[in-house]
Amino acid sequence: MYRRLYSIVFLIIFLSGCAGRQQGEVQSETRLLLDTYCTITIHGDVGQEMLDDAFALCAELETLFSITIEGSDVWQINHNPGQFIIVNTRTLEVINAGLEFGELSGGMFDIALGRLTRLWNFGSGIEVIPSETEIAAALGAGSFKNINVSADKNIVWIEPPDGGNDGAWIDLGAIAKGYIGDQIAGLLIERGVSGALIDLGGDVVTVGNRPDGNPWRVAVRKPFGEANEMLGVLEVTGLSVISSGTYERRFEIDGVNYHHILDPTTGMPATGDVISATVITENALTGEGLSTLAVLLGSEKIREFFENTPGFIGAVLVLKNGELLEYGDMVLVR
Fold first, then answer.
1. Which domains are delineated in the chain?
2. pTM value?
3. Count of CB atoms within 10 A of residue 192's CB?
4. pLDDT at res. 248
5. Strands 216-221 and 147-150, bridge-based pairing
6. Which three-class secondary structure string do you get for 202-255?
7. In what order do the strands lie in the sheet with 155-158?
8. Can you tell me whether residue 298 is helix, strand or coil?
């Protein structure tokens, strides 16, 4: 659902930066959740219960947002087209955020592409390009505009389009991890944690600073490079660092790279000039939307989104021609 697998890059930087410190000052654990490796690192002698509670919240939210877990809020909506489904308030918040990104982007960010994403099925190990007929049918199921929300009653329903189609499926994979990271950070802050780093398969949310008082150091991976190859490091305090790219969930056939960021106008992988987008924001949910849109819209159009989005701090984009662009108030330490 949310697969990204390069968190080890962060761990190398973090551990090297803390060498020589007493082991009890930092507690860190990695678990397999959200179809990826999730690492939570917390300052101080907080006890195992704090980590357990943080991972439990992650697992709880996954059971609400997953497109594949039977009985999840999203599963219930998708498998009952036209019916009113009462959902958790947190599910409603993520869906509303996705709908807002859809409106702002003119439909390029579309959380109703579930039938299309399941058709491509990236990460399954099955490397098959869907037929034009299959893609047309998936796109014909509807868009985010077919999603209806009654916020006062926590009700969501999908109105199937005319023509007897069963209707669109919601897929929150492009935005849910950011929301989950924000929620875990909020829990830790509520519990009095002064410094932590939440790494959900490469989507990083920080609380405060590192144990030595310095900012957290988060790597920006080199697209299509080895797992430990990086372009540089971002130093952040209480901010989120979210990356999207055409080098992640993908396969290659006849020299063509097919990746998981799908263009809702064609049903095919996006073909813009951005192959990697790393975005620094005040909250991870916003970073998720902006990093995905950067790949979908390209380097020229995304500039306006960066400038007009509250909470945007900075971004690093890598283009197909190898050019590296930096935006906003941040410095990539090389």
1. 7-63+193-333 (3.10.520.10), 68-158 (1.10.3980.10)
2. 0.92
3. 9
4. 87
5. unpaired
6. CEEEEECCCCCCCCEEEEEECCCCCCCCEEEEEEECCCEEEEEECCCCEEEECC
7. 85-86, 155-158, 147-150
8. coil
